[in-house]
Amino acid sequence: MDWKKSFQLASVYVGTIVGAGFATGKEIVEFFSQYGFMGLMGIIISGLCFIGFGVKIMILSIRLHAKSFHQLNVHIFGSYATPIINVIMCVMLIGVTSVMLSGAGSVFQEHLQLPKVTGILITIFLALIVLIVGTRGLVFVNTLVVPILICFSLLLAYLSFQLPDFGKNVLEGTEFQWRAVINSFAYAAFNISLTTAVIVPAAVEIGDERTVKMGGVLGGLALTIVLIASHLTLVQLPLLTSYQIPMAVMMNELAHYLHFLFIIVIYGEIFTSVIGNIYGLERFVKKKLSIHSLFIGIGILSIAFFISQIDYGTLLSVLYPLFGYISLIFLLLLFVR
Questions:
Q1: What is the CATH architecture of 3-336?
Q2: CA 173, 187, 151, 254 torsion-angle sign
Q3: Second label for 159, Cα 20 to 30 Å away, from 35, 152, 284, 309?
């Protein structure tokens, strides 16, 4: 077993899932923190899914010698259903890109006191430049931003632990809620289905099942720890569902001197998520149509721009759970396979 490759694979797994909704905290509030203590139990369920199904996908990919997630989809859904699944995944990616753009606008609006549309247009402009120039710099940005984001999450959890009502806030909401349980599976399904484009080829490239298994376990554990840390911080925030970027609000409250740096990190995570989605969609469209990458990018971002005019919190709270419930089919069929 190659420990170095296991850690690299774990980093890729974590980096792919720790997207903008995760960075802002809004996604964690929507799926977990609004349910209080039951949300914490939901995080543990999601964490077990990240470990179990993440490992299952990677090992299955090695055994199938899958070069892309398309081959994995053919194995799971069959050759007739796969084209429909691919279209659904494209719709999900456009929806997530729209949420990311809306989130970028909210960062500018809520924390830089600039119009939301300014943040969206700047993000689109930068995304098109990267589409023309290339993505080498983005790999560096991701490897820099994700560890910093994780460190911030752990720091905020530590500072929250020192608050006088910490224990009381964590233990609120102990009554059983089915929606909290379903949301935990939906959250895992949504994120796992969108990461297959990255972890399938990464696992096949490594080729060793023991190395890949350890990478999946380490990645899943890291995600669980960061989710718990973020949740323990967010439940300390009164009226937590009313904020667009709740993690930035907590950073401003607990460590004001790091607030602006944290905003930059959040925006960096949003931007890398937008680019990742655009490239995934661009490759899919290019297989079907012979159009220049720049025009494909403009087309995708134009659609996302109009959708992103909807309030960030509203957009995320509608689209993410919807995509999560759709993705549950993927998780169920994966389990059967």
A1: Up-down Bundle (1.20)
A2: negative
A3: 35
The Cα 189–Cα 325 span in angstroms is 8
- How far is it, in rounded angstroms, from Cα 84 to Cα 292? 25
* Chain segment 113-154, per-residue pLDDT in tens: 888 899 899 999 888 887 777 666 556 666 677 788 888 888
| Cα-based torsion angle of the residue sequence 94, 100, 103, 108 in order, rounded to the nearest 10 degrees | -120
CB 301 within 8 A of CB 129: no
Q: Domain locations in the chain? A: 3-336
Neighbouring C-beta atoms of residue 236, cutoff 10 Å? 22
Q: Which of 166, 152, 121 is nearest to 274 (CA)?
A: 121
Three-state DSSP class for 131? helix
CA atoms of 269 and 16, how far apart (whole Å): 10
Percent helix, strand, coil in the chain (nearest 5)?
Answer: 85, 0, 15
pTM of the model: 0.85
**Taking each helix axis from N to C terminus, what angle separates 312-336 and 69-77, rounded to the nearest 10 degrees?**
60
CA distance 22 to 149: 10
